[in-house]
Amino acid sequence: MIYKSISPQFKIDFFKYIDHADRILITAHLSPDDDAIGSTLGLQYLLQRLYPKKKIDVAFSGYPSDRFSCFEGYQNIKYNHDIADELKNYNLLICLDVNQYSRISSNPDLIKSTNLPKICIDHHGSIPDNFSLTTQDVNATSTAELIYKIAEKKFDLDLIFCESILLGLLGDTGTFNYIKPGQYHIFNIIKKILTVTQINIQEFKSRYMTVDPESFEVIRQLMKNSQFLHQKNWPNFHISYLTREYIADNKYDDSQVGEGSDIFVAQYIRIIKNNNWGFVIRPHSDGSCRLSFRSLPGSVNVRDLAERMGIGGGHDRASGGKIMSANNQPIDPLQALQIVLDWMKLNSPVLV
Q1: How far is the C-alpha of 46 from the C-alpha of 147, rounded, in Å?
Q2: Which pTM does this prediction carry?
Q3: Residue whose C-alpha is closest to residue 65's, from 311, 228, 241, 259
Q4: Which of 141, 173, 206 represents a domain boundary (last residue)?
Q5: pLDDT tens sequence across 165-223
Q6: Same domain for 201 and 223?
């Protein structure tokens, strides 16, 4: 069953699944961002309050980030080589902020084939994989907003829950920069959260928006490696990358590389005049290269690009992807770049 919003009937169906499960696993996409972390922690906290005797865990494929360690419950998140390895320990899987199994695991077929019920709660426009229950509200600002709506009237809002939700809301709205017509309802939610908690947003963000020296060096290297490219029939674009040699020489881990890359993408991709879209390529320890795409209104629909390439998905103006080599050997970022460029030569962009 697929719903387009957190309707009363969706809530009834959702809590039926919760009622019948005693070991629940909550996850989100690879390289979890603010919304993925905030929504998973928020849902875990809600369910633990409502069902104190159930086992309710959060786990991700990948590695932790110190940036989120100030949030209640983050220290208990399980980080694994692959989330698919955990499924045997649970009888319900809930996927947040993602609607495709390939974006949570390197073994999507294993997840698809398992018999345990699977729930998807998401706000992206990608065509979802087959879940037992899905809500896909493309008008929502974030998945954290959807978790807030599930929680409404279920329990009294408190500081711990509201901080998790606020993390997701601020992250996916760019502290309200990305809100579109039809999403102004979010300010009513923000008002309720701030009234209950008396949070100062600037002070709140200062707790988790600091950058460690290693991640800052990653940003500097991405500055150095920036290129401004042109491809026939495509708008001019900005790309950057990190080499495997650079990461190995400096002994950086996936978390440090990911944090630096995320900041660079958010701050610098799509802001250079006449280069209103672009992407960053970073090697990952699993041998793949991860790509982060961004664009401005009127430029390339980067969700469409990632989906048509078959490497990922996300938002129209902010998406992610993963490229593996054909022989399962570590792929070089410049090889990954060439794969994208070769695809662009044969395809035309969709503008949004």
Answers
A1: 9
A2: 0.90
A3: 259
A4: 206
A5: 999 999 999 999 999 999 999 999 999 999 999 999 999 999 999 889 999 999 999 99
A6: no
